[in-house]
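Let us work through a complete example step by step.
Step 1: write down the sequence.
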Amino acid sequence: MQGPVIEAISHEMIFVRHPLLKLHTVFYLKPRKQLIFIKEMAGKCGKFETGEPFDYPALTDEVILELINLFDRKESLLSLYHLFSLHNGSLLDLQQFKEIVWLLNKHNLILDCRNFTGFLGGIGRLNFS
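Step 2: predict the structure and record it as tokens.
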């Protein structure tokens, strides 16, 4: 999964968990090479699922959840990659990590901070206005 969208993700970017979306669980169906997210949107009735083709056999449901939970920190993508690698060794290289970030963003589990105004919009840079 390479391309201009993945290449546009820089090391300095900051992603955060979607504030209105609750992730209930993740299922990585390795034989089917598919990742399933069970989610619930604030104000909506009931859970729903989204899925994606996914072929990272070294990962488990628990490691994927751990990776998603890293985005509670409001740190740069590179910092989060180093944290992930510290706990999980070389399960993913940086390019693979960015591919998973793109996938999580595509499924609205994490959001690019540049989309926010106010406090979140100023993370990682000085704002004197």
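Step 3: interpret the result. The first strand starts at residue 15 and ends at 17.
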